[in-house]
Amino acid sequence: MLRLTTVFIVSLWVLCYAFIPTPVVAQLTINEFLPNPSGDEKTDEWIELYNNSDQPIDITGFQLRDSVESHLFSVTADHLPNSSIIDPQSYLLIFPQDTNKFSLNNSSQEEIYLYNNSTTSAQLLDHISYNGSSEDKTWGRIPDGVGDLVANLKPTPGQANLPPPTPTPTATPKPTPTPKPTSTPKLTPVPTITITNSNSSTPSTPTPTHTKISATPTHSDTISTISSPLVLGTATKPASSNPTPQDTQANTSSHLNPQLASNHRYFLFIIAAGICFVITAFFPMIKKHLLTKLPFLKLA
Length: 300
Prior knowledge:
Elements: H1 2-19, E1 28-34, H2 41-44, E2 46-51, E3 57-58, E4 63-65, E5 72-74, E6 85-86, E7 90-94, E8 109-115, E9 124-131, E10 138-142, E11 148-153, H3 219-227, H4 245-293, H5 296-299
Antiparallel strand pairs: 1-2, 1-10, 2-7, 3-6, 4-5, 4-8, 8-9, 10-11
């Protein structure tokens, strides 16, 4: 009996725990904050909470602190611009105003803790950590309530966080093509014509040439030679004792001319005798041939 009672109690406790709704405060998060405002940091720093649930949440009495445990303060109406109730999927701003020395560091490691308003033992709802910040730039979750922290956002208090703009990649300039060097045309060598002036050459002394004149005597010359005696010119002795080459050539020609004339006479005589012999030997044959071809010669 005792065993059955124990089993019943445990089963009832399990069923009750399974159907007990989870507190909505667990879905309250630190969504955005401004650590380094351009104005007065004691009054212009702010923290934005985001209700990621489907029910409104009253944050009166909720607690915030920085990395120092003693810098803990409870949220009151003085820290809120309007109501302390956050509607579902909505935002609410808290201005700490240097309450209990709470502040957000600008250039070093810092932490923020969010607790609920439990009177017995405060429950940690959210905790974030960051390191340094730029002036008038916020840290925030992207997407809201559930994303990771992103630095250097454009402040959007009470609105959805905007992702940082994607930097436009700088177009890499195309290298200017190096112009190809223009090839220098090669000059075709022009042949040089050297003109040698023959007149400028040293005149050479003409060498006397002995010209042998052989004259073929004609029939009239032969008759004249036979009928007329050969008259030899009288050589005149030059005044100079040393004869010149021209004088020597003239004397030699004068001695050779009579001999040439004698040879011509014999040659003409032999030719005439040969012609007579040929005519005498072939005369009968020639006569017969002529009578055969020319019968009118018989009458004569």
